[in-house]
Amino acid sequence: MKQKEQQKVSDKFFKKSGLVLYFNIFDFQEVVELLREKYKIAKTYEEVSKSDKFTFSIYFDNELNFLADKLFYTMSGYIRQHGELPKDFLKVENVFREDLNSKFEEGFHTTISELFHKYHISAENFRYAFVKNLDNGDVNLHSFFIEDLNKAKTITNENLNRYFIGFSGHRHNLDGNKESVHFNPRIFETTILQPKFYPLGRFPSNPGFELSFMQQVAVNLALNDKNDIRSVNGPPGTGKTTLLKDIFADLVVQQTAEIVQLSDKRIKGSLVYWKDFKLGVLPHSISDKNIVVTSSNNGAVQNIVKELPKKETIAGDFQKLLDEADYFKEISNSKLTGEGFGQNREIKSELLHEENWGVFSLEGGASTNMNKLLLTIEAIEKDLEDHDQANTGESVYQEFSRLYAELKIERDKMQDYSGKMYALRKLKTKHKEEVFAFEQEEKRNEQI
Q1: Smaller CB count within 10 Å for the chain: N or C?
Q2: How many whole angstroms separate alpha carbon 242 and alpha carbon 408?
Q3: Are 221 and 197 in contact (CB under 8 A)?
Q4: R_g over Cα of the chain
Q5: Alpha carbon of 442 to those of 428, 429, 434, 447: distances in Å?
Q6: Angle 229-233-239 (CA atoms, 0-180°, nearest 5)?
Q7: Where is the DNA2/NAM7 helicase helicase domain (predicted)?
Q8: What is the pLDDT of residue 136?
């Protein structure tokens, strides 16, 4: 009743209210360390925020009747208690639910006292909260990933196997610190940082701020190395997103180079999806350069995806050129709604702002995001139909081919210079060694 008065809940809505108790609260890092020790996993740098978890929660209605269906037993709590992963966690949770339900039917006070005693309840490891509406309260869900991961383990796939087992091939020393005892300049001079491995595309950010040494190493490896799985680690603010931008930019340039070489720029339908309707299939040389940004951290993905199309990320020299290119700028800055079906289908747009330079990246996942993504594709398709690109695009293809060829020639020249400079450095080193050997030989002859 005290909570009813404090929360200002009417008699009508109080009937839907209840109480939730959180037992055995702990630092999740305990579970992380336990699993690391059990499975011999070495510590690695991760961008994770520490948080507290509860072992289980139980709910009661406004008359303190136990609500068995709302009980939630966390897997992390189970692991902390038992030191291992459960084989069938839902079965464990149901047994616990039935046991508590039976005990609460026998007596509320006795069962609560027993729980408080068993879990050594204190101000540090216990919380409770008043729930205004039990029907619309927060829903506790177990991880969706466990079933997917178990399924993935049964699939024979090279990339999945590498993800689960780890990389077992030859590792290269990429220590670029001159002060380090492991400093390995040769790998940068002879392979990674040779001009021929530099991308021909670059994100149009400020050209006065080039990539740092190790950022460029990461970009060149990502675009040229044969390994399909790579990881770039670093604390916040160290430039991971910056190097990703240049990788994305070069992949777009590579896709464009493939498109330009197509004799027929229209992709004809070949894959039947319903009756006589067919989908066009992109050539593999184009589709294998598509980009999907994924992460277990939604915020990390959102930051990248939302930042890419922002005007503020583009250098002033390039903004006018991007406006002229019109990378579906109006669509990117508009709220889109779809009305009707088939031939009566219409996409309406309402200009909200002009923060974006174009449609370069879109967020997926949630249904609202997917709806926006599909509407954007529809709007782009309509825009392309209204402006026949096949008839007006030849000059664009030719201009791209010309610039691409010029840049490639320039890179080839730099590669030639680099090769000659490397050969000269080797000769210089050899000359020094031979001069030193000659001087030593002369000294020995003088002593004789």
Answers
A1: C
A2: 23
A3: no
A4: 31
A5: 21, 20, 12, 9
A6: 110
A7: 215-423
A8: 74
| Closest by Cα among 16, 4, 19, 3 to 136 | 16
Q: What is the pLDDT of residue 134?
A: 87
Decide: helix, strand or coil at residue 49.
Answer: coil
Please state, in angstroms and rounded to a whole number, the distance separating the CA atoms of residues 79 and 238: 35
Q: Quick one: pLDDT at residue 77?
A: 95
> pLDDT value at position 229?
74
- pLDDT score recorded for residue 2: 56
Count of CB atoms within 10 A of residue 361's CB?
Answer: 17
What amino acid occupies position 372? K
Helix/strand/coil for 234: coil
Measure the CA–CA gap between 24 and 127, rounded to whole angstroms.
9
The H or E element containing residue 276 is none
CB–CB of 21/57 below 8 Å? yes
Q: What is the pLDDT of residue 81?
A: 94
Helix (H, G, I), strand (E, B) or coil at 188: helix
Quick one: which of 238, 233, 300 has its CA closest to 49?
A: 300
What stretch of H or E contains 282?
none
Regarding beta strands 127-131 and 269-274, do their DSSP bridges make them parallel or antiparallel, or are they unpaired? unpaired
Give the three-class secondary structure for 390: helix
Give the pair of three-digit tokens for residue 442: 């002369």
* Torsion angles phi and psi, residue 131, rounded to 5: -110, 115
Q: pTM for this structure?
A: 0.69
344: burial class by Cβ within 10 Å (0-12, 13-18, 19+)? exposed
